[in-house]
Amino acid sequence: NLLRVVQAPNEANLTGTICQIYPSVVMVTDPPVWSTPWEEKKKKLTPILFMVVVIIFLYFVYVVCHCIPMLQFQEDPLHVDEGMRWRGRVEIVAFHVITGFLIWCYVRSCTVHPGTIPDDDPQWECHGQDTAFGEPTMNLQETKKTGDRRHCKHCKRYKPDRTHHCRVCRRCILKMDHHCPWIYNCVGYYNYKCFYLLLFYCVLDTHLIFWTMLESVLWTLEVDMYFINIFLIYFGVTLACFFGTLITAFFGFHTWLMLRAMTTIEFCEKSMPPKRQGSSPPLEEKSSFDSSVYDLGAWGNLQAVLGPDVLLWFVPFGPMNGDGFTFVSDETRLSKDLTASKGHRRRTHQRVQRSQRQRSYHADALRTNT
């Protein structure tokens, strides 16, 4: 076994003595080097810096190498292609509008707090025993397998429905979807709309760049250009195609989740709220991956994410439906299933009663005839 000794300035004699007695001693004279908070922050900000560089590069390539040549500022007015100039004007205006919304949504996604459990609300304080579960104002659906309320061992707070603890942010996030390193923030209840619109405008921007710059790719085969221009055009188209494919698939996945009132965590867990003690009818603990007890229908799910005002659906702000703590209402699938099951039990009970009365009537008639 190796004995590790940390040398101090006033322990030189002791160190020499130890080395003479134990030749196999390993001396550690340099203090351990720990990463500073700023170094850790730089690592976390690297994805954001990468995204900023990509946006700037694609903006430069599309405007300088594609749109400006289409406007033909240096061409003789007699040789100007008016159709190409008109397309250039439309494309550069559309590109700037979409890119402006993209940057707006990106900033909002990074800066808007996703929502967390308030510290000054006593109903979420974890007292070590489940004393407030029976309160009608809580209306919680997600519990442990034992029927107790879920609580966070890190924050020492009870968890509302769909709330999870993020180890990166070190806090509980309301309706947590996932932690996104590209925005250096969690995606939760209050910034999910900003994140979804960010994906939407990224899809529009990358597809606009790719499909319209194919015309510039054809120019490189017909017109003599500098090598740097050819390289920028081909690299920009390739980059737009790569990111467009990935983001389109990711956007389609989140659209599918939104229409089914699910989060990424809920999709991965494939879970439904467990059965509460004494509840009727019994609820299954597991469900298919494409269903959610919080389903409000396609239109209701859209409003739950994008807001009740359709005119504000495509801007990263606006009022939200709900408060991020309760998600079960009269319109959710859970409430409808409970109501339908109660009606089914009532009809079944009525049929049983009628059959019992009929058997009793036939028995009385048989005894009378006898």
From TrEMBL:
Pfam families: DHHC. Residues 361-370 have a biased composition (Basic and acidic residues). Residues 342-360 have a biased composition (Basic residues). Residues 146-270 form the Palmitoyltransferase DHHC domain. GO terms for cellular component: membrane. Residues 340-370 are annotated as: Disordered. Its EC number is 2.3.1.225. It is found in: Membrane. Keywords: Acyltransferase, Membrane, Transferase, Transmembrane, Transmembrane helix. GO terms for molecular function: protein-cysteine S-palmitoyltransferase activity. The chain crosses the membrane at residues 48-71, 91-107, 194-214, 226-253. It is a multi-pass membrane protein. It catalyses: L-cysteinyl-[protein] + hexadecanoyl-CoA = S-hexadecanoyl-L-cysteinyl-[protein] + CoA. The DHHC domain is required for palmitoyltransferase activity. Belongs to the DHHC palmitoyltransferase family. This is Palmitoyltransferase. It comes from Noctiluca scintillans (Sea sparkle).
